[in-house]
Specification:
Blueprint (H helix, E strand, L loop, with lengths): L22 H23 L7 H13 L5 H14 L5 H15 L6 H15 L6 H15 L3
């Protein structure tokens, strides 16, 4: 099941690519995606304390925001975070995938939606079956509260 829609929203496409997204707003979206990924990162780190790839991806996304890393360098760490997800239980897997999506926002802004969606899936997967829906809703509410004006 794909996380991102096939058709890109022009509001999530940079001006350079024919959309309406400014560089400042692109950085705001990246920061929000990184917050979403970081919020669930402990679900990965608790079971994989020696694997820094998702954390490295989040750090790379922040470095891109500060202008210290190129889009391609941040995107490379996204691949590494995604690789870290392979074969893991769902909470850890989705947390790593959230970090990967967040680190890919510099490449395609719409990945911020993927970072948020995977974080919601991670939260739901970490709860008991009868509390999964509430965990997802709580995560979604937290994410909304972090959205920049």
């Amino acid at each position: 099941m794909p996380i991102l829609p096939k058709e890109r929203d022009p509001r999530l496409t940079t001006i350079r690519r024919g959309g309406s997204l400014t560089d400042d707003h692109h950085r705001l979206l990246a920061d929000w995606a990184l917050l979403c990924a970081e919020h669930v990162l402990p679900l990965f780190q608790d079971g994989q304390p020696g694997d820094s790839r998702p954390r490295d991806a989040i750090d790379a996304g922040r470095a891109w925001i500060r202008g210290e890393l190129s889009m391609m360098e941040s995107r490379q760490t996204a691949f590494q975070a995604n690789a870290a997800a392979r074969g893991l239980p769902d909470p850890a897997k989705f947390a790593a995938l959230s970090a990967g999506q967040a680190a890919a926002v510099p490449h395609v802004a719409a990945h911020e939606l993927g970072a948020a969606a995977y974080a919601i899936r991670a939260a739901g997967a970490s709860a008991a079956a009868d509390g999964a829906a509430r965990a997802r809703a709580t995560e979604r509410e937290w994410q909304r509260a972090q959205l920049p004006a």
